[in-house]
Amino acid sequence: MDKNQLRDWANKIILGIGIILFIGVMIPSVREILGRGMDLLMSPVLALVGDQNFFLLLSVMAVITAIYSSLIQKYTVDQSRMTEFQERMKIFQKEMKEAQATQNTYMLKKMEEQQAEIMKEQMDVMKDQFKPIFYIVLVSLPLLMWAYYYIAGHPEASIVFPFWGERALSATLFGMFTHWLYWYFISSLAFGQVFRKILNIRAAGM
Q1: Where would you tag: which of 100, 128, 165, 204 has the fewest CB atoms within 10 A of its CB?
Q2: Quick one: 46 and 96 in the same domain?
Q3: The model's pTM
């Protein structure tokens, strides 16, 4: 078995584990097992920062997720292809606007024919961007399951939001979205945007 075959098998195994984890966390007993398992690793870390500073550890987890996901996207998505696609998209949009402004029926028909190809390529590019998700799941989901586990056992844990004041981490913000999940995802998204900018990571259609 050559290196390419080994890499393909490794990718399939990682994707498989990611899918299993993603599906598994829908089951309460699986969440409990993952949370308990991660607690063996995270409890000593939390002991260093103190229970009262759990929200700081939550923020660090969000930053780790942002860095990890940005690096995964950087090295698993073809950035040169993404750049080329974005340039073609800009040219297409510019030509389409000009054709619409001048009511050039010949150009409009030509643009419509190109649009189908552009949309197909955009779907292919978006599929490439979707692939890293299961790699990201391998790190982010166990951390999230530990946070679920810890907060379930510490309902008094709270965080001070700017302009909102102190809120219980376990309290519901809307639907099933709790305050701690909101803080985690907002922090992760914010730092993720910074790292994506630093690493020059592009997104389809942007």
Answers
A1: 165
A2: no
A3: 0.63
